[in-house]
Amino acid sequence: HAVAEGMSCGGDATNTGELQVSDCQAAFDIETQGGHTLNTGLIHVSGGDGATGVTVSQAGTFDNQGDIRVDVESGLLVGVSYSLGYYDQSPSFSNSGSIVVQSAGAALSIGLQFDNYASYIPGITFYNSGLIQAEIAIRGDGGYDKFTEIRNSGHIVGDIQLGFTLDTVVNKGVIEGVVS
Question: Can you tell me the mean pLDDT for 166-171?
Answer without folding.
Answer: 89
